[in-house]
Amino acid sequence: MTKQIAGHLLVECLIEQGVTHAFGVPGESYLAVLDGFHAYRDRIRFVTNRQEGGAAFMADAQGRLTGRPGVCFVTRGPGATNASIGVHTAFQDSAPMVLFVGDVGSDFRDREAFQEVDYNSFFGPSTRGMAKRVERIDDPARIPEYVARAFATAMNGRPGPVVLVLPEDMLVHEVDSRPLARVEPSQAWSDPGALRQLREMLLTAQRPFVIAGGSGWTQQSAQALQRFAENWKLPVGNAFRFQDTFDNHHPQYAGDVGIGINPKLAQRIRESDLILAIGPRLGEMTTSGYTLLQAPKPTQKLVHIHASAEELNRVYQADLAMLSTMNAAARSLEVLTAPASLPWEAWTAAAHADYEANMEPQALPGEIDMPAIIGVVNRLLPDDTVYTNGAGNFASWVHRFHKHHGLARGLRTQLAPTVGSMGYGVPAGIAANILTGRTVFTIAGDGDFLMNGQELATASQHGAKTIIVLLNNGMYGTIRMHQEREYPHHQSGSHLQNPDFAALAQAYGYAGVRITRTAEFEAALTEALAREQGTLIEVMLDPEVITTRGTLSAIRDAALQKQVKVKAS
Predict the structure, then answer these.
(1) Torsion sign (Cα): 97, 46, 183, 190
(2) Is residue 102 a contact partner of residue 166, using CB atoms and an 8 Å limit?
């Protein structure tokens, strides 16, 4: 059998697992792997990033889009620590990823050699850490075993990131090992007894509500979920930043359950007598700070279906906890026989009516009408457009006013960090275009964009085209909002002096335009769609327009009035 260096074998193992793209920043610690990418360049593409955080975000997006682990390569020490933001995002968002870290040579280990880090300590693993598993490959002949296990671990149960550490000297050893076969995620099926109990709980309910989300959904499982909801006439809300799980156009859709939740939807969830949480962790953002469902024991009856045994009953004590992957759960639910009539049909219709009413915007000041701009986006962009964003109040415009057709149509259309990572949207969008060729719309804030705007250079180098709408209000808007709410008139640290974003985009190879009035946007977007290159549209937004529902002044005034009442009492 022909021998080859271990770095080449590693790349072969990735190809066997179906990897077509790997993202990363090159380092001298894994030159042998880079040479492997060169050797197999007709079968796998190494995308050169400008910063490891951006590379890890691209791998995270790859995992969400494909359902298989996104792949990222970084060098030791600073490279790995830069990438940790993407690992943490993949962990909390349950996205499959494998991060490969080039490391110091085995002969230098444990001497605090140049850029040496203890990766087990740094990345976890635990439910309080950043990775599901951290392993070091010391024997090059076992590379196939470690890679296959990493892919299986990243996909099985609650998906998440795995870190594999690659000693530099190990990668240059010659081996005759061959890649192991492609691994597929295991399916955990719902317990038949639990399904019978769930049906009995439905039959005694008066105001049930479904919260769908989390990872692991496919077109088939989304379609099965839709049939289950239709059979039982159930209202469905999508968990925070999993808004493409259930079709937003469906007459039983009730809205997104997350930050900036429709107050009527929040009240409806509180008044529900049965919550079916299918897939989400029920984290802080989805539960409005653990208030929609009280922890640890909700006032509503709770059925929690999740792929991880460790997640069930970890925060919420469920009346019925079901261990199941989403594909198996949805296919089990769709065959539950519903009675001829159900007492909550009016409840479901009212939930959808509340959602439609929430699409009507509040009047806000300034020359920019953001709901109208999102309306133009909805009208001009294809149905299969991928929408990406990082973290900040700016994202709420898309979250509230865009309707996703849902995974039942076959495509994931939302890439957004539930962990609230700033800087995610730009690299995630670039990765989405590289991987799928679909239209990508990224909404960013000025502070958010500057976290990873350098990845426009990556886009230009690798032929990616995205459309970025950057809302420039000269501040870290979310932080300023919280400051005015808690410490009115005490602005500190949240002001930003920004560059000329349109010129900056042009320097990276994108087209860059700036608009100051709503009427200018449609032409700018139309031209962006027609260009071969990507486009950044800078929107000069009035700082007063801080949320989709109110102004900065209103938040400040409410805080001042509260202070007066406290002093008076």
Answers:
(1) positive
(2) yes
Mean predicted lDDT score pLDDT of the chain: 96
Instruction: Supply the DSSP string of 336-386, one letter for each residue.
Output: SPPPS--TTHHHHHHHHHHHHHHTSPPP--SS--HHHHHHHHHHHS-TT-E
Q: Could you report the per-residue pLDDT of 454-463, keeping only the tens digit for each?
A: 999 999 999 9
Q: What is the DSSP letter of 312?
A: T
pLDDT in tens, 399-445: 999 999 989 999 999 999 999 999 999 999 999 999 999 999 999 99
As a three-state string, the secondary structure of 489-503 is CCCCCCECCCCCHHH
Q: Is the pLDDT of residue 246 over 60?
A: yes
Question: How many Å separate Cα 140 from the centre of its chain?
Answer: 34
| Cα 333 from Cα 194, distance rounded (Å) | 11
Q: DSSP letter at 475?
A: B
Q: Is 67 left (phi over 0), alpha (psi -120 to 50) or beta?
A: left
- In angstroms, what CA-CA distances link 426 with 170, 201, 404, 467, 498? 35, 44, 20, 9, 17
Separation CA 135–CA 163 (nearest Å): 6
Question: Quick one: average pLDDT of 516-544?
Answer: 98
| Per-residue confidence band for 115, with pLDDT thresholds at 50, 70 and 90 | confident
With CA atoms as reference, report the closest residue to 207 among 145, 300, 140: 300
**Distance, CA of 432 to CA of 77 (rounded, Å):** 28
